[in-house]
Amino acid sequence: MAGVVATRGSPLHPPSASAISPTVLVVEDDADLRSAVRRYLSEEGFTVEEAESGDEALAVLLDAARGGPVAVDAVVLDLLLPRLNGREVCYRLRRAGCWVPVLIATAFGEVDDRILGFQDGADDYLVKPFSLAELTLRLRAVLRRTSPGGDGRLVAGELRVDLLARRAWSGPVEVTLSPRELEVLAFFVRRPGIVLSREVVRRGVWGAQASISSNSVDQHIAHLRRKLDWSLAGAEIETVQGVGYRLRVVR
User: Fold this and answer.
1) Most buried by CB count within 10 Å: which residue of 90, 93, 108, 153?
2) Are 64 and 92 within 8 A, CB to CB?
């Protein structure tokens, strides 16, 4: 298959069962390559969304930045795309103030191509044909670099979450949470101040294919509200009527 080297063997960094599944948008007009990347990343613990054109990808990403139905943590972006090329997608994202990590994956491998890609706001650059194992490693590296602390530790106000240790603190007090409660909390801590619909939370925490109702999202948030001392945390998950929820940081 053009554009990809399907090597597997033992993953250098196998997905951690303790980490929330990051959502990756794969933007590629080659259906076979897009499908191969989706299958591999899914097996490696990622949640994968797809787009086959530049304008479709830009619409999804800008909507996600506004708290739309698809929450995106990183983008794998081809350059040769229908209707809007990848460079323009990246440039428009950055102009709009959207700083979701972008990994360009393209056949253009000259030094000048790479320079232009980084100038347009890309976080990493991978040349086709590429190994799916290397793509996975680069995605994880980009996510580490662009996440607060880069080590699985998230902070909003005095609210802290350690994804690797599976622990959370409200101010100085450690709070005992179920695995799913921790994932819901971390999803909000990663996005302070952003209004998130129930569908965004459902897809981001449980996965796009999970058959759970919005009531389950409400229940988990209710559990978090009972367990966390928000006066100590300096933050709270507030209800935005008719829309969803937002983590409001007050100090």
Assistant:
1) 90
2) no
Say how far apart CA 24 and CA 201 lie, in whole Å. Answer: 15
Domain with CATH 1.10.10.10 in the chain: 150-249
C-alpha torsion sign, points 105, 106, 110, 114: negative
37/51 Cα distance (integer angstroms): 12
At 117-174, the pLDDT tens digits run 887 888 889 999 899 999 999 998 888 766 654 456 788 889 998 877 889 999 999 9
Amino acid letter, 64: A
pTM above threshold 0.90: no
DSSP string, 197-250: EHHHHHHHHH-TT----HHHHHHHHHHHHHH--HHHHTEEEEEETTTEEEEEE-
